[in-house]
Amino acid sequence: MKEKKLHNIFIEGPIPAQKIADDVQKHSGRTGIGAHSIFLGQVRADAKEGGAVTAIEYTAYTEMALAKMDIIRENLFAKYPLTCMHVYHSLGTVAVGEICLFVFVSSMHRKAAIDACEELVEQIKQELPIWGKEIVSGEVGYWKENQ
Known about the structure:
- The protein has three helices and eight strands.
- By secondary structure, the protein is α+β, with helices and mostly antiparallel strands.
- Strand 5 (about 80-95) and strand 6 form a beta hairpin.
């Protein structure tokens, strides 16, 4: 039996604004879509002991994360009438103010897109083996807790 190829959600470094714009633009010709819901996660300059967060260094158990993401994706397509779903998460160092998570969900109607996007973001944060180490004042500091 042929093994299923998992979609790679990981991008090295920050997610470029041009990628986000290009992905949105690619859907302009899909006239059955009536709504897009987009979530952008951005690195914050949280205050920590020793200074402010200047970046987050992301790592993941890639194989497990991709397999789990595939299950999440299938479950959300079964639950909501979606037309498409895109997820991109950074690996490596992402500076304060840069985008580290891009979630893009489309549907014929807004409620399905909004609800699926919110549920998808929560599942990514809670279920995928992705970790972020906050860099504080140029020094590797604290493991970040997903909230």
